[in-house]
Amino acid sequence: MAEIDEMPLLSRTPAEWARSVLAEPMRLLVDHAFLEKKAASNALELLTRWPNEWLDGWVETMTGVARDETAHLAQVTRLLLRRGGRLDRVHKNPYANALRLMVRKGEATELLDRLLISALIEVRSCERFLALAEVSEDKELAEFYKALYASESGHYRVFLKLARKVAKPSVADARWREMLLAEARILGEQEVGPRIHSGWPGMTAPNA
User: Fold this and answer.
1) Which domain of life is it from (predicted)?
2) Is residue 15 predicted with pLDDT exceeding 70?
3) What is the span of the domain harbouring residue 41?
């Protein structure tokens, strides 16, 4: 399991963020459920858009990620329902939406960008899950987020590895550095609230 200091993120989430969002656990679980749902659909969409990708293990990797994320969705939903909550009909994720605006659509680099953004979302989610696990006084939630931390760490590495195969490693790494900087800025612009990808005062992007 990767240590937090090994993550390439350019900003770090403070414990105060985790304590704040855990004060509204039901709303946090609803947001989390939609996050897992989108992650599963993203993997399937990648497979649908590029069904015959030449990379070895492409189909197995995308279906495996989709399976994992669907299992996480089922876990979050069970927690939510058991605690008397329910899913909303509509959900917005301005953080993920802003990241996806960086995709260079219609170009040969579209798949590269999609894979790198998937890696960004996974690694930030991984960091947030660890923050939640470390401060939660709810034992069930603490254990749940600790387990998810390990899984999402693996997903982020898979997407980054694939990105370095669909493009030259030097090209992929240069784009990855650009996106890491943009991710820190975008997260810093998010509103505070009980969401996995919400903002927090003082979380700002480093200087370019």
Assistant:
1) Bacteria
2) yes
3) 14-188
